Amino acid sequence: MNILIAIIIITAVISFAAPMGSANFEKYKFSVGAILNRKEYIRLLSSGFLHADIMHLVFNMLTLYFFGPVVIQGFGNLGFLIIYFGSILLGNMFSLFVYQRQPWYSAIGASGGVSGILFASIALIPHLEIYMFFIPIGIPGYIFGLVYFSYSVYMMLNPNHNDNIGHAAHLGGAFFGLIYAVVNQPQAAIENSMYLGIMSLPLIYLGYEIFVKKRIG
Length: 217
What we know:
Elements: H1 3-17, H2 23-28, E1 30-31, H3 32-38, H4 43-46, H5 54-98, E2 106-107, H6 111-124, E3 129-130, E4 139-140, H7 141-157, H8 167-184, H9 186-191, H10 193-211
Antiparallel strand pairs: 1-2, 3-4
Helix pairs in contact: 1-5, 5-6, 5-8, 6-8, 7-8, 7-10
């Protein structure tokens, strides 16, 4: 059994064993208050194995299944694991930073890790075609990345209380995957620098909002 299938199976088993609302779900989900006040740091990783429902799980695991092989081919099994779990951790750490004054904030899902795998794939192959539901044509990876980052940054800076998507975790995970790919495949990064630069413009703007204007954190 390869490492990709093993991660998918383990995540599915844990998601079904600890459904939303169960004691273990509450014990291991990402929770700002529990992490900061009770030092339950295991939640930074364990929340990546929990999902709200079957559709949430299937969407994440299907995306991982399709893009995982690109990362494994480019960085090997160890690189895949570093990107996947590193993206979950950094995504949740960024969420902790963003929502540190909101102890009630909680989240679950492998989306941070999946975002890292997806964007590591795009860093390797910027023109990688990405297909969305109900859209019959492939979208070049770097265009998808630009739209994805733009939307996530906008939603972070203009939060909607009815929006249940963890944009901070997505951004943190995607950033980790992107940086890992650039550092470990510098030649490809140089060749694709124009596409990566275009895709990263929203991240530069977010950095300005965080570190210059102090709008977040």
